[in-house]
Amino acid sequence: MTDPLVAKIEANPKYHELRRKRNAFGWMLTAIMMIVYYGYIALIAFNKPFLAQPIGAGVTTLGVPIGMGVIVFTIVITGIYVRRANSEFDRLTAEILKEASK
Question: Taking 90 as the threshold, does the pLDDT of residue 90 lie above it?
Answer without folding.
Answer: yes
